[in-house]
Specification:
This protein has 324 residues and is an alpha/beta fold. The chain has 17 helices and 8 strands. The strands form 2 sheets. It has a 4-stranded parallel β-sheet, with helices on both faces. A 4-stranded parallel β-sheet has the order 5-6-7-8. Helix 5 runs parallel beside helix 7. It is globular. The protein starts with a helix and ends with a helix. It binds adenine and zinc ion. The site of adenine has 11 residues, from helix 4.
């Protein structure tokens, strides 16, 4: 089973590029850019990764991103993730980036996207890994700031496939961002949103009905609402579930208690991704391995999860056929 998981061709649909910043690279970039870190060593950084909810993680995650300053930094970050993809047999990946985390610190939008895009282009040419880039709005910031970010991004529209919504969920419902998602749709961008990670099922309804999303990121709280479960199953709305993230952020106490298999058994289109692998203890392969062991998934389940991700990807039919 371990070998089958290792070589299973995978598609990853929920990965924050800033969340792939390993402590070793964080230290190297801090030195290169003369940035002071509040940690003395890589071990100290790893020891600080003890979270009790989403916000306690976000505080450390945004602080870590401060070492990213130059185009080369964003290139190196993205390239390091693509090497992990190669090792995990990931053939296609859809990557979130959070431009506001960087523009708020004075790093130009161009620096961020040019570095990420250059690595993704090299990744396709040298590693054969295809990719899509999803621009995420930070939901703890204002709707106006999100609209400004979208407008700033438009000159790079060729490099951006879709828009998303992330950061602190509770108290920042999807309805706050209805106007910017409408504008993004008018500009031709499909949408996804984090919903039902910590937040209530109502946020998932809002993401579907107000933001018109094609996928729900996380969505595990849907289980509390039978009508929503029926809708997600009927419409085959993909959920990008991140099991190790959910444990690290205490959404479930133990992996054995995760509802991923119950969601599958209820007929939902479930996929597995890693979210912020440098912070949560595993890339997508490890998410498959740990979840399979904890929930006793068989090979059919794993192949179904992998196939669902191909179907849910922002790819044209011919590319999906090649991945199936
Ligand atoms: N940004 C990075 N990881 C996130 C997560 N798991 N939820 C919301 N926002 C995030
Ligand atoms: Zn996420």
């Amino acid at each position: 089973m371990q070998d089958a998981i290792a070589t299973l061709p995978k598609v990853e649909l929920h990965l924050h590029i800033e969340g792939s910043l390993e402590p070793e690279l964080m230290f190297a970039l801090a030195e290169r850019n003369d940035v002071d870190l509040p940690y003395a060593s890589v071990e100290e950084v790893r020891a600080a990764y003890q979270f009790h909810d989403l916000q306690s993680f976000l505080d450390i995650y945004y602080a870590g991103a401060c070492v990213l300053l130059t185009e080369q930094d964003f290139y190196d970050l993205t390239w390091a993730y693509l090497e992990r993809c190669r090792d995990d047999h990931v053939r296609h990946t859809e990557i979130f980036f959070d431009p506001q985390t960087h523009t708020e610190r004075g790093v130009p939008f161009a620096t961020v996207i040019d570095g990420i895009h250059r690595a993704l282009a090299d990744g396709e040419r040298e590693l054969g890994i295809t990719s899509r880039l999803i621009l995420c709005f930070l939901r703890h910031l204002s709707a106006e700031a999100a609209m400004e970010t979208l407008e700033t991004a438009l000159p790079w529209r060729e490099h951006i496939h879709a828009v998303g919504l992330d950061s602190a969920e509770l108290g920042n419902p999807p309805e706050k961002f209805q106007a910017v998602f409408e504008r993004a749709r008018a500009e031709g961008f499909p949408a996804v949103a984090h919903a039902g990670e910590e937040g209530p099922p109502d946020y998932i309804w809002q993401a579907l009905d107000l933001l018109k999303v094609a996928r729900i990121d996380h969505g595990v709280q849907a289980e509390q609402d039978p009508d929503l479960m029926q809708r997600l199953a009927r419409e085959q709305i993909p959920l990008t579930v991140c099991p190790l993230s959910n444990i690290k952020l205490c959404v479930f106490e133990r992996l054995e208690q995760h509802n991923l298999k119950r969601l599958m058994d209820a007929g939902l289109c479930v996929t597995i991704s890693s979210d912020d692998p440098a912070y949560f203890g595993g890339y997508v392969g490890e998410n498959f391995r740990a979840t399979a062991a904890a929930l006793q998934l068989d090979l059919d389940d794993l192949e179904k999860l992998a196939r669902n991700a191909v179907d849910a990807a922002f790819l044209e039919a011919s590319a999906k056929q090649r991945l199936h």
